[in-house]
Amino acid sequence: DTAVSQTPKYLVTQMGNDKSIKCEQNLGHDTMYWYKQDSKKFLKIMFSYNNKELIINETVPNRFSPKSPDKAHLNLHINSLELGDSAVYFCAASETGTLTGYTFGSGTRLTVV
Amino acid sequence: DQQVKQNSPSLSVQEGRISILNCDYTNSMFDYFLWYKKYPAEGPTFLISISSIKDKNEDGRFTVFLNKSAKHLSLHIVPSQPGDSAVYFCAASSMTTDSWGKLQFGAGTQVVVTP
Predict the structure, then answer these.
(1) Looking at the DSSP assignment, which residues form a beta bridge with residue B4?
(2) A26, A68, B83, B87: which has the fewest Cβ within 10 Å?
(3) Number of domains forming the structure of chain A
(4) Quick one: average pLDDT of A1-30?
(5) Which residue of B lies nearest to A10 if distances are taken between CA atoms?
């Protein structure tokens, strides 16, 4: 039973489309994150939610909107996709106040054509 | 501006020998450091961590050393095993309230352990 699961695993879409990536965790953790791994392989934080409340919002285009319907889910919606959005997106979850309990999902490879 | 740097993109080591991975950081506010291991098509998994009040932390075959004055940390794997072949990411965080939970990652080092 996967602790942090993301869907879809692969997503190929055309420029200008709107797409969503879903993330669910069954660890009971309070905090969830979205990270982006770009072509240079750096993992960069995008958003963090704690108990459905946005607590970290890095400088990302406002075309990216996270949504947390409950503390077990954190979805990422992207409007008007651009070529530069192509990357691997990782969801993660952790207990509040701990970094060692950070658990990542297996990633969603988004390709914008 | 990349605050965590792993300058060696790859490392090849023989099975049984020591693997030494290096990481440098620029932000003096970082006070907690972690190493993650990543296999292809999987997410990173936590390996070992160290807080800035220590200079060494050991867990089985894995030891992390921290040199705060040099803003440098290293991960030693001894002995290296074929299953250690993976990408290793160094990450850093600050325990200040507004930065808590925000990990800054390096670009990773691909380790290949040869028989």
Answers:
(1) B25
(2) B83
(3) 1
(4) 94
(5) B41
Length of chain B as a residue count: 115
Q: With an 8 Å Cβ cutoff, is B106 touching chain A?
A: yes
Least CB–CB distance from A40: residue in B34, B43, B107:
B107
In angstroms, the CA B114 to CA A50 distance is 43
Which domains are present in chain B? 4-114 (2.60.40.10)
A42 touches chain B (CB under 8 A): yes
Torsion-angle region of residue A72: left (phi > 0), alpha (psi -120 to 50) or beta?
A: alpha
CA distance A65 to chain B (A): 18
Q: Identify the CATH number of the domain in which residue A80 sits.
A: 2.60.40.10
Closest CA to A102 of B95, B94, B108, B46: B46
Nearest Cα neighbor of B37 from A49, A24, A102 is A102
Contact status of B34 with chain A (Cβ, < 8 Å): yes
Q: Is residue B41 scored above 70 in pLDDT?
A: yes
Interchain proximity A107–B46, CB inside 8 Å: no
Q: Could you tell me the two tokens for A21?
A: 């990536």
A96: confidence class by pLDDT, cuts 50, 70, 90 = confident
Domain that holds residue A11: 4-112
- Helix (H/G/I), strand (E/B), else coil: B84: helix
Rounded Cα distance, A65 and B111, in Å: 35
**Around Cβ A91, how many Cβ atoms within 10 Å?**
28
